[in-house]
């Protein structure tokens, strides 16, 4: 059974975190690509928390690390609203969502644009805009610390992934300089976390490729070049290794 959250405590799953930041504010962090089970677990936690604390609160949602291009999480959201809509309208005053960059951001904004909204929901590109709209203080540092603890992604790795998202051909030496550490220190920290720079760069390229495969009609060769792979063959092999399917199969499945 999921324990309801209380003030300054949080419940968390593999891709989500729900916290009672104050008696007036819920804090939510979403990351990665949650499946149906993960998404349902989040809403189960919210129902438990809202049942225990039914007073209306504003809700701040940090979705900047949300990486799904699937509609399933939003389908689950609609399902829960149908069952628990009355509870949700009592426990939530308004929701500010800070979206990811790029196509994921457009996807999130578009999804909330068509979903039923029993309370005001606004999607923002910037944190400060979301906080101003909520008109309440948000402990961003505290929420970030909870995310690092819940996701087991330390700040250094989070910073590296944000850097690689914008620089898909960045050599290790330049990445280390950008992060203000030595190459050896960066490699050591990554090894301690069970990863490598090569793996992190490969994952960043695959994430970027997924966006391009869904959001554009660009040929696979052009996408291979855009994400920093030297050839279509290398790109296809990398994509299949990290996802278990070919780029063309991934595109066909999502276009459908």
Task: Describe what this molecule looks like in 3D.
By secondary structure, the protein is α/β, with parallel strands linked by helices. It folds into 2 domains: about 10-150, 2-Layer Sandwich (Transcription Regulator spoIIAA); about 155-255, Orthogonal Bundle (Arc Repressor Mutant, subunit A). Helices cover about 55% and strands about 15% of the residues. The chain is built from 12 helices and 6 strands. It has helices at about 35-50, 70-90, 100-115, 125-135, 140-150, 155-165, 170-180, 185-190, 195-215, 220-225, 230-245, 245-255; strands spanning about 10, 15-20, 25-30, 55-65, 90-100, 120-125. The protein has a 6-stranded mixed β-sheet with strand order 1-2-3-4-5-6, with helices on both faces. α6 packs across α9 (about 195-215), α9 (about 195-215) packs across α12 and α10 crosses α11 (about 230-245). It is globular. Residues about 1-10 have low confidence and may be disordered.
């Amino acid at each position: 059974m999921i324990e309801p959250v209380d003030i300054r405590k949080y419940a968390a799953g593999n891709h989500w975190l729900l916290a009672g930041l104050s008696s007036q504010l819920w804090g939510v962090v979403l990351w990665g690509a949650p499946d149906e089970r993960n998404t349902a677990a989040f809403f189960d936690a919210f129902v438990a928390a809202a049942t225990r604390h039914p007073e209306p609160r504003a809700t701040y949602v940090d979705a900047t690390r949300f990486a799904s291009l699937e509609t399933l999480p939003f389908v689950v959201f609609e399902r829960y609203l149908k069952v628990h809509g009355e509870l949700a309208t009592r426990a939530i005053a308004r929701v500010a969502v800070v979206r990811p960059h790029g196509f994921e951001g457009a996807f999130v904004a578009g999804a909330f644009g068509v979903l039923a909204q029993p309370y005001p929901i606004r999607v923002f590109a910037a944190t400060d805009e979301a906080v101003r709209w909520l008109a309440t203080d948000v402990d961003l540092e505290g929420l970030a610390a909870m995310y690092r603890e819940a996701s087991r992604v330390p700040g250094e790795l989070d910073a590296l992934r944000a850097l690689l998202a914008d620089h898909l051909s960045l050599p290790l030496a330049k990445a280390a300089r950008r992060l203000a550490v030595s190459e050896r220190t960066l490699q050591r920290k990554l090894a301690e976390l069970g990863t490598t720079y090569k793996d992190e760069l490969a994952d960043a390229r695959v994430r970027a490729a997924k966006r391009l495969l869904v959001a554009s009609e660009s040929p696979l060769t052009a996408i291979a070049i855009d994400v920093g792979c030297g050839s279509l063959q290398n790109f296809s092999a990398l994509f299949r290794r990290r996802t278990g399917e070919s780029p063309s199969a991934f595109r066909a499945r999502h276009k459908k």
